[in-house]
Each structure stands twice: as structure tokens, then as C-alpha cells.
């Protein structure tokens, strides 16, 4: 398993390694280096961008994995391009890129949605008026295709999609930690409340760039490990049976065997989740 801290790709590394970053990388993003943004400001804008993705996804009734794919696209994009900054608004708006990531994720995950549906979701989600909130809840908003606002969103998404694809190097297949978590917990016969808590932790992870610091199995194991810590449950109590060749007999697999990670990796991911996802956002909210 690749070291969970992640490094930038070098000759001989697997292609997926280009999307693994270290903690120091997260403090030296284009938004910080080019845009002069504070790292905490970037963290909050990413959080809002992913929040917009989930709000749009809920409006469109998208499957969870489609929204998760869009969230990962957003974080990967901002590791290579800056957020909007300065009086001239150079860079890329997190809300505009959120809509673009949803549009692309729908295509990649074969959750077919036409562009007007994405525009409806974007305009409905960003309308904060009482009437707009009501239309969002009822899912009754339909944009006028002849309006300037519709044309603006259409142009933004289509132009931004090209930039997004190029920035992602057309590397669009995402391994989802949620799927790994569910399969592992099923093999380990983990109690449902514990699985739900770990699932929620993974959802929270995708709102932060912490999700690009770890491979999907490590992030899934970290979420499971933290859910056990929170629930005061010893993860070593969960084992799975493995039947090998007749001469080998039957043996038990530990939870780290099932997740296929090192315990140190899972512990590191759990610590990052605690510090960078929860504590950091709690401190900002105070």
C-alpha cells in the first residue's frame, strides 16, 4: 500500500499517485502561492464548494457515488488551479466549479442528466431567498432557457468543463472509499450503527482536502478506526474467516487484513480526520 501521506508523482510511480498529496502540499496550493489566499480561507471555500455539490445532487436526486465523484474532482482541480482571487476575480469560482464537477460526474458515472437539469439545480441551490428555498424544497424550479442567467450558467459550465478535463488529465475514474468501507464491514459483521457512523465520517472527509492525502482503502480504514474510537469499541474484536487451501486450513483475518492496509496508515488517517476535518472546522466556526 502506498504511504498514506502521499507524494507528488515521480518517474516510475503508478498513475494514481499523481492524485495523492502530502499535508505540506495542501498548504502550498495554487490558491495560496498564486492567489495569496490564506490556507484556512481555501479550506472554507472548498467546504462550501462541496456543500454546493451535495445540495445540487440532492435537488437532482443523484446517487451518493455521483456526488462523491464530483467532490473528489473539485479537490483534485484545486490542487492544480487557484480559487478565485483579487479584485479582478482571477482564478476559478468554487460555486461555478461545483456545478461543472456535478455535470462531469453525471457523465462519468452514467447518471444521465442533461445540461438544463444541472443549470436548474445550480440556480435553485444558489437562490437564498425564501421563495427560492421553497422552490428548492419542492423541486419546482425550472430556469427559463431564454434568460440571461440560464445562458450565463450554460456558458460557465461548458467552458469550465474543458478546463476541468484538462486539469484532471482526463483521468476520471475514482475509487470510492464508501464502497470499500461497506464491503469490509460486511465481511467483518460490523454493527450497523458503527458502519453508519463511519459512512458519515467519510462524507465529512470529502468536504475537506484531507481526502486527497490518502488512498481510498486507507481513508475507509481511517474512518472505520475513528468510528470505533468515537464509539469506544476495540476494532480488533472484528474478524473475518478466510478459507485457504485444504492443508492451510481456516484462519481469521483481522480488520486491517480485510481493509488491506497497515494499522499505522489507518491511525494516521484517523488522526488527520480528527485534526483537519473536525477540529479545524470547529475552530473556524467559533
TrEMBL record:
Describe the location of the Cyclin-like domain by residue ranges. Answer: 51-166, 179-275
Picking any one GO molecular function of the record gives: cyclin-dependent protein serine/threonine kinase regulator activity
Q: Which top-level group of life is the source organism from? A: Eukaryota
Q: Does the keyword Electron transport apply?
A: no
**Which Gene3D superfamilies does the UniProt entry name for this protein?**
Cyclin-like
Keyword tags: Cyclin
Would you tell me the protein name for this molecule?
Related to C-type cyclin
Q: What is the native source organism of this protein?
A: Ustilago trichophora
Amino acid at each position: 500500500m502506498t504511504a498514506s501521506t502521499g507524494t507528488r508523482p515521480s518517474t516510475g510511480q503508478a498513475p494514481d499517485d499523481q492524485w495523492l498529496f502530502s499535508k505540506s502540499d495542501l498548504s502550498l496550493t495554487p490558491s495560496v502561492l498564486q492567489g495569496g489566499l490564506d490556507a484556512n480561507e481555501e479550506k472554507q471555500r472548498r467546504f462550501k464548494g462541496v456543500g454546493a455539490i451535495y445540495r445540487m445532487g440532492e435537488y437532482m436526486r443523484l446517487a451518493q457515488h455521483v456526488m462523491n465523484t464530483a467532490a473528489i474532482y473539485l479537490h483534485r482541480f484545486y490542487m492544480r488551479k487557484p480559487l478565485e482571487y483579487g479584485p479582478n476575480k482571477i482564478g476559478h469560482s468554487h460555486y461555478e466549479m461545483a456545478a461543472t464537477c456535478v455535470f462531469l460526474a453525471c457523465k462519468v458515472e452514467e447518471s444521465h442528466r442533461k445540461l438544463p437539469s444541472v443549470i436548474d439545480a445550480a440556480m435553485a441551490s444558489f437562490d437564498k431567498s425564501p421563495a427560492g428555498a421553497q422552490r428548492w424544497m419542492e423541486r419546482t424550479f425550472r430556469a427559463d432557457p431564454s434568460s440571461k442567467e440560464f445562458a450565463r450558467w450554460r456558458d460557465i459550465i461548458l467552458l469550465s468543463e474543458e478546463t476541468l478535463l484538462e486539469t484532471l488529465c482526463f483521468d476520471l475514474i475514482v475509487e470510492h472509499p464508501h464502497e470499500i468501507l461497506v464491503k469490509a464491514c460486511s465481511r467483518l459483521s460490523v454493527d450497523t450503527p458503527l458502519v453508519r457512523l463511519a459512512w458519515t465520517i467519510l462524507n465529512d472527509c470529502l468536504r475537506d482536502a484531507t481526502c486527497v492525502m490518502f488512498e481510498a482503502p486507507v481513508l475507509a480504514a481511517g474512518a472505520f478506526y475513528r468510528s470505533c474510537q468515537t464509539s469506544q469499541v476495540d476494532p480488533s474484536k472484528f474478524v473475518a474467516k478466510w478459507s485457504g487451501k485444504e492443508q492451510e486450513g481456516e484462519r481469521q483475518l483481522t480488520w486491517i487484513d480485510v481493509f488491506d492496509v497497515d494499522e499505522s496508515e489507518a491511525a494516521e488517517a484517523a488522526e488527520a480526520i480528527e485534526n483537519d476535518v473536525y477540529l479545524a472546522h470547529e475552530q473556524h466556526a467559533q
